[in-house]
Automatic annotation (TrEMBL):
This is Riboflavin biosynthesis protein RibD. It comes from Nocardioides mangrovi. GO terms for molecular function: 5-amino-6-(5-phosphoribosylamino)uracil reductase activity; diaminohydroxyphosphoribosylaminopyrimidine deaminase activity. Its EC number is 3.5.4.26, 1.1.1.193. In the C-terminal section; belongs to the HTP reductase family. In the N-terminal section; belongs to the cytidine and deoxycytidylate deaminase family. Pathway: Cofactor biosynthesis; riboflavin biosynthesis; 5-amino-6-(D-ribitylamino)uracil from GTP: step 2/4; Cofactor biosynthesis; riboflavin biosynthesis; 5-amino-6-(D-ribitylamino)uracil from GTP: step 3/4. Residues 4-126 form the CMP/dCMP-type deaminase domain. Binds 1 zinc ion. The lineage of its organism: Bacteria, Bacillati, Actinomycetota, Actinomycetes, Propionibacteriales. PANTHER family: 2,5-DIAMINO-6-RIBOSYLAMINO-4(3H)-PYRIMIDINONE 5'-PHOSPHATE REDUCTASE, DIHYDROFOLATE REDUCTASE FAMILY PROTEIN (AFU_ORTHOLOGUE AFUA_8G06820). It catalyses: 2,5-diamino-6-hydroxy-4-(5-phosphoribosylamino)-pyrimidine + H2O + H(+) = 5-amino-6-(5-phospho-D-ribosylamino)uracil + NH4(+); 5-amino-6-(5-phospho-D-ribitylamino)uracil + NADP(+) = 5-amino-6-(5-phospho-D-ribosylamino)uracil + NADPH + H(+). Its cofactor is Zn(2+).
Length: 347
């Protein structure tokens, strides 16, 4: 049974894991607090991104000999494998830690088993303390590990009558400036921007993430285009003159599942789907949309391009009915655009 000191330490470990500036992937965010027998803090640590020491190793390095006999409170089960760094479970054993309390069990089969290693070495282990809170900290990472593919957020902007462009093809701007700024905020939470070949050929998008002053942010998502069609290498998505630090890749497939498998192999965990109606329909038909973000503009066109292509639905009884999880009128938006967040029922 966890003590009040361990519960407080776990909350602190969660704070450490969520330290601003820590990359959202490909590794999970993890925090660790080492406690002495009297409940006082010996050392703290957190993971700062792929290739850097894990949270446990960070805390152990600060503690030195003071780690012997301590309790390690960790937001994720200590890993049991050697990657870019050594296994944390064995590091805790070698440091002489007496007890380990962790929140979330590691869903990654390649890294799991740390608890068993610790117990086999005589270390007392307790799991599940604030597991829900820890899981929320790494929702996307956990999803990608458990499903073997990235989480997919489909974003689009539409008029009240479901149009993403007018009859003449013009689409700038269906959404307001406030909506576009909000989109860049959401883009920054992902590690892939994905569009189809037609979008690249016709619209020539930059697909970078920029701040409110139109300046590129430091860490850019991978810019991916999906489809078998050959494209002009001078398109801005491929041209390093416009890259602003972002890499790009052409996924030569029309199958959404294959595209996600390729992105997962590149250690990508969260896809921001911003392609046109054809690409959106392909992902929807395949059941590979996990979240929908819609910016609704208070305007009517009456004709023009639909926000999504044919889904093969012929009767109202078969309508695609995602669940609305949030409705927000964007703050300070004089055009009163509304952002809807929805989740497909099966998710």
């Amino acid at each position: 049974m966890s003590s009040s000191a361990e519960q407080a330490a776990m909350r602190r470990a969660l704070e450490l894991a969520a330290t601003p500036g820590v990359p959202l992937g490909p590794n999970p965010r993890v925090g660790c607090v080492l406690l002495a027998d009297d409940g006082s803090t010996v050392a703290e640590g957190f993971h700062r991104g792929a290739g850097t020491p894990h949270a446990e190793a960070d805390a152990l390095a600060q503690a030195g000999d003071r780690a012997r006999g301590a309790t390690a409170v960790v937001t994720l089960e200590p890993c049991n494998h050697t990657g870019r760094t050594g296994p944390c479970a064995q590091a805790l054993v070698a440091a002489g830690v007496r007890r380990v309390v962790f929140a979330q069990a590691d869903p990654n089969p390649a890294a799991a088993g740390g608890a068993e290693t610790l117990r086999a070495a005589g270390v007392e282990v307790e799991s599940g303390l604030l597991a829900t809170e820890s899981g929320l900290l790494n929702t996307i990472w956990t999803f990608a590990v458990e499903h073997g593919r990235p989480f997919v957020t489909w974003k689009f902007a539409t008029t009240l009558d479901g149009r993403s462009a007018a009859a003449d093809g013009t689409s700038r701007w269906v959404s307001s400036r406030a909506a576009r700024l909000d989109t860049h905020r959401l883009r920054a939470l992902c590690d892939v921007m994905l569009v189809g070949t037609n979008t690249v050929a016709v619209d020539d998008p930059l697909l970078t993430v920029r701040d409110e002053h139109d300046r590129p942010i430091a860490v850019q998502p991978l810019r991916a285009v999906m489809g078998e069609r050959d494209l002009d290498p001078g398109r801005r998505i491929f041209n390093t003159q416009y890259s602003q630090g972002a890499e790009s890749v052409h996924l030569r497939t029309r199958d959404p599942r294959t595209a996600l498998e390729q992105l997962h192999a590149l250690d990508r965990q969260h896809v921001f789907l911003e392609g046109g109606p054809t690409l959106a329909a392909a992902f929807l038909r395949a059941g590979l949309v996990d979240e929908i973000v819609v910016y609704v503009a208070p305007m009517l066109l009456g004709a023009g391009r639909s926000a999504v292509a044919d889904l093969g639905i012929t009767t109202i009884a078969d309508a695609f009915r995602p669940r609305v999880t949030d409705v927000t009128v964007l703050a300070g938006d004089p055009e009163h655009n509304v952002r809807l967040t929805l989740t497909p029922e099966e998710n």
